[in-house]
Design goal:
CATH superfamily: Dimeric alpha+beta barrel
Order of helices and strands: EHEEEEHHE
Helix content: 10-25%
Strand content: 35-45%
Number of strands: 6
Number of domains: 1
Low-confidence stretches: none
CATH topology: Alpha-Beta Plaits
Strand order of the largest sheet: 2-5-1-6
CATH class: Alpha Beta
Largest sheet: 4 strands, antiparallel
Radius of gyration: 16 Å
Mean pLDDT: 91
Length: about 110
């Protein structure tokens, strides 16, 4: 089952930095196990553009639409047997302690 893993900052990171995981080791391990299909860090929110169309009019906004301290800073696409395995992969990501991780399964393809 494939999951999109949003890697986010958080206003309240874990203060205990004992045994902080190494991101390069996390990537190498999950790549080697075939659980991480793709992933990348995102540019700063200052480089973001929000696009909306309302009443046929194109509305552009610099930066993310939401006014929040927590932002998506990266993503990974995971291929795991089930949600439990995806949670274990996310639990070991450094940003699970420094920020937060959101797992979302890809929707099943619809019959067209």
């Amino acid at each position: 089952m494939r999951y999109l893993m949003f890697v986010c900052t958080d206003a309240e990171p874990d203060q205990d930095q004992t045994d902080w995981p190494d991101i390069e080791a996390w990537v190498a391990d999950n790549d080697a196990r075939g659980r991480r299909l793709d992933g990348h860090e995102l540019a700063a929110t200052s480089a973001a553009t929000t696009v909306r169309v309302r009443d046929g009019e194109l509305l552009l906004c610099d930066g993310p639409f939401a006014e929040t301290k927590e932002v998506i800073v990266g993503y990974d696409i995971l291929d795991c047997a089930d949600l439990d395995e995806a949670i274990e992969v996310a639990r070991t990501h450094p940003m699970a302690r420094a920020g937060r991780i959101e797992l979302r399964p890809f929707a099943a393809p619809t019959d067209v």
